[in-house]
Design brief:
The protein has a single domain (about 5-105), classed as Sandwich (Immunoglobulin-like), CATH 2.60.40. About 0% of the residues lie in helices and about 45% in strands. It is built from no helices and 10 strands. It has strands at about 5-15, 20-25, 40, 40-45, 50-55, 60-65, 75, 85-90, 95-100, 100-105.
């Protein structure tokens, strides 16, 4: 059986500039929810970050955005509320674009 793979582009937008941005998620190449193994995204302006990662076609992927390699830097909703994990199904040409409104503050 031949496994087919694809690349997914992750794009994260934020309203306030940050120096670092990471994603942690349900797959090995996103750190298996271990924040210390979160994947660092790149940016040119501090507002828009991106990374391209490889997955099996049809693979279900959940993820969260972090501003630290620690859950103390996890994203929050518009009113600083908890939000559900982001979810995509990997496919050719897939783009997972999210906007981060707030960060955990403690």
């Amino acid at each position: 059986m031949i496994r087919q793979y694809c690349f997914v582009n992750f794009v994260v937008n934020t309203f306030a500039p940050v120096s670092d941005m990471y994603i942690s998620g349900s797959t090995k190449n996103l750190g298996l929810w271990n924040a210390s193994k979160a994947v660092r995204l790149t940016s040119t302006d501090g507002y828009k970050f991106n990374i391209r990662k490889r997955f099996r076609i049809g693979e279900s992927v959940e993820f969260k955005v972090l501003t630290l390699r620690d859950w103390r830097g996890v994203e929050k909703g518009m009113f600083a509320e908890e939000i559900a994990n982001h979810h995509i199904i990997a496919d050719k040409g897939a783009v997972a674009e999210v906007t981060v409104y707030n960060w955990r503050r403690d």
